[in-house]
Amino acid sequence: MVPSAKIQRSSNPAARWPAVLGALAIGALALALPRRLAFGPNWLLLVVVILLLIPTLAARRAGRLRLNFFLGLSLSAVVTAAMIWSLAMLIGGLPAKRETPIELLRAASALWLSNILVFASWYWRLDAGGPHARDHRQFHTVGDFLFPQMTLPPGHACYYHDWKPGFVDYLFLAFNTSTAFSPTDVPVMSRWAKALMMMQSVISLGTIAILAARAINIL
Q1: How many helical (H) and strand (E) elements, i.e. helices and strands, does the chain have?
Q2: CA-to-CA distance for 175 and 2, rounded, in angstroms?
Q3: Alpha carbons 135 and 119: distance in angstroms, whole number
Q4: Mean pLDDT in the chain?
Q5: Residue 78 and residue 47 in contact, taking contact as beta carbons nearer than 8 Å
Q6: String of DSSP letters for 148-180
Q7: According to the 3-state scheme, what is the secondary structure of 52-81?
Q8: How far apart are the C-alpha atoms of 188 and 120, rounded to whole Å?
Q9: Which of 60, 72, 122, 133 is deepest in the core (most CB within 10 A)?
Q10: Of 85, 107, 102, which is closest to residue 207 (Cα–Cα)?
């Protein structure tokens, strides 16, 4: 679902600043990568993130939700491509042992954290039509992920009639996917969400396997 071009005021809009901080953190994590693993200078991704965030936030402030939506998707696509590029370069350089153990540990840790933030951004941007579409619904009862709050009956001690998922909820989902390789308490409903979660698990498993293989080699 693509947001309407006209802005509608929501009585309970979700905060956007956690998602902005997440995008900036992805760019900052690229600074920890060895030069060989980055597509260009280490600081380039952070600069690109900032340059894409400015028109994205400006479009939302101006009420151009459709433009904001596609600019946000472009931002997520850029950081995803950069992360996959760095991981491929890291794996490709393993046989030649181009990175020292400290560099390898730092790079793998940065990529693992980036993986969580990148896919949290995707889930936040796409679930139930995205944050704008979720804002304009009174209740969050239908989506691509089944959060526990969506299953609670009225009158339950933890029931909130106006609850809607925010970026932190999707960050928690992405963290579980990268650590437990499963959605844990949040079942996945749609095919695109399942595909993204499989991709995230593969990237996380590959990063952890690099660390384990290198640790065994050192021992």
Answers
A1: 7, 0
A2: 27
A3: 21
A4: 84
A5: no
A6: GGGGPPTT-TT--TT----HHHHHHHHHHHHHT
A7: HHHHHHHHHHCCCHHHHHHHHHHHHHHHHH
A8: 14
A9: 72
A10: 107
| DSSP letter, residue 145 | B
What is the spatial distance between Cα 12 and Cα 101, in angstroms, rounded to a whole number?
A: 48
Please provide the size of the chain in residues. Answer: 219
Average pLDDT over residues 82-106: 83
Q: Which residues pair with 145 in a beta bridge?
A: 188
Beta bridge partners of 188: 145
**What is the spatial distance between Cα 26 and Cα 113, in angstroms, rounded to a whole number?**
8
Alpha-carbon Rg of the chain, whole angstroms? 19
| Cα 41 to Cα 197: distance, rounded to the nearest angstrom | 29
The CA–CA distances, whole Å, from 48 to 19, 38, 40 equal 16, 13, 11
Burial class (CB in 10 A: 0-12, 13-18, 19+), 214: middle
**Amino acid 46: pLDDT:** 96
Residue 14, pLDDT above cutoff 60:
yes
SS3 128: helix
Which pair of structure tokens corresponds to residue 44? 């380039």
